[in-house]
């Protein structure tokens, strides 16, 4: 029964995320909260209640994590409540400070692992237990409602991909893919080779079949689990915020540097943390993702490039080691 509740909870979270990626839904949620400002406290209450219901269902409720989550969602909510909701979409210097404070709080506590994003571990049948990073999606939903609904800041993260977005998306991936491939192989940050999971696929399919199947499976998974989440945060929030005070090119560069620094604690092959070469490569990749976002105003476009680059890294670069 516990697993059933968790599965239902995952579906609810996914539906909520997709819904909040629509501007009309965010504005609707924000309008409901603004009617009675005390309602903004529903946000942290819903988040910790969601965690509690799912964790109790599988006997994994933890007081320490509950307390950290209460502070994680409660403190930015206190800032929102004390500064009040926005009645228009203007963005003053004070607004930028408040918005940046919320974004950095949401990001840094996850990045520094102060708050565990893997709220639960579940095991179905004889398979190994799987960690569920529900905290990441809950945090993004919170940020979407807080920034776009309550603060009236346009994150430009609607679920839209126009025909005109196809060319800049494909061209950027082509240029970025070749550039990153050259740099990572030259510096020794990666080795060229097909990942073991593809070579030793469970069905024993030949590589001519296994490789395309792996790409078709990996790219959408990365798009959902990493691409959309990071692009909402770094492009929709940070790069957009910077554009209110900097020229678009400067905003792109600064947001990319921040994106690179966010990856300095990643290990790759023989490079230990702080991994500055990896951070540099990530910053370069961020330039590509940010450029696509700048040209298309589409999170879906930048997340698509992000997912394809990460799929290339996972399937064809790290696999040789």
From TrEMBL:
Keyword Nucleotide-binding on entry: no
Keywords annotated in UniProt: Membrane, Transmembrane, Transmembrane helix
Membrane-spanning residues: 65-84, 96-119, 131-150, 170-195, 207-226, 246-264, 276-293, 299-317
One GO-annotated biological process of the protein: CAAX-box protein maturation
Presence of the UniProt keyword Glycoprotein in the record: no
UniProt-recorded Gene Ontology molecular function terms: endopeptidase activity
InterPro entries reported in the protein's UniProt record: CAAX_protease, Rce1/LyrA-like_dom
CAAX prenyl protease 2/Lysostaphin resistance protein A-like domain ranges (all copies): 215-312
Protein's UniProt name: Membrane protein
